[in-house]
Amino acid sequence: MTLSTKRRRVMELLYRDMSDDELAELALARKDLTAAARPVFDEEVRRRGVFLLALIEQKHREAIVARFDAMSDDDLVSYLREEPALTPLEREVVIEQMLRRELDPTTLPVLGGFSTETAQ
């Protein structure tokens, strides 16, 4: 058994022993995994299936919500005026934040295409 095969086997066992919650948390930092670890991690996620994918999405959403929750109204609006590139999930969370805070999302170009019908 080669060294790279042994390392891969160790990673497989490590990921297999992790709980779904631990893997979901690790998925948030997937980009920080080594090039050798990423495919092994991805295989374990695929092996576990849809439930884990849903958990990963939930954790990702929670992290985005926490990031925007930490901003004041003024900071959030200032950030959005810079027209950052938002993922669809970030855009959804920002719109929810704006509505919850009773701010008008239609005034921000980065949220272009937003209408009150979109939010309902």
Task: Please specify the SSE layout and strand pairing.
Blueprint: H1 3-17, H2 20-27, H3 37-48, H4 50-69, H5 73-81, H6 88-100, H7 116-119
Helix pairs in contact: 1-3, 2-4, 4-6
Account of the 3D structure:
This protein is mostly helical and 120 residues long. The protein folds into two domains: 1-51; 71-120. Helix content is 68%, strand content 0%. The protein contains seven helices and no strands. The protein has helices spanning 3-17, 20-27, 37-48, 50-69, 73-81, 88-100, 116-119. Helix 1 packs parallel to helix 3 and helix 2 packs across helix 4. The termini are far apart. 9% of the residues are buried.
Spell out the helices and strands N to C: HHHHHHH
Low-confidence stretches: none
Count of folded domains: 2
Give the helix level as a range of percent: 55-70%
Structural class: mainly alpha
Task: Return Rg in Å.
Answer: 19 Å
Helix tally?
7
The gross shape turns out to be elongated
Mean pLDDT: 88
Please summarize the sheet with the most strands. Answer: none
- Strand fraction equals under 5%
Q: What's the end-to-end separation, in Å?
A: 57 Å
Number of strands: 0
Gist?
With 120 residues, the protein is mainly α. It has helices spanning 3-17, 20-27, 37-48, 50-69, 73-81, 88-100, 116-119.
Quick tags:
elongated; 2 domains; 0% strand; mainly alpha
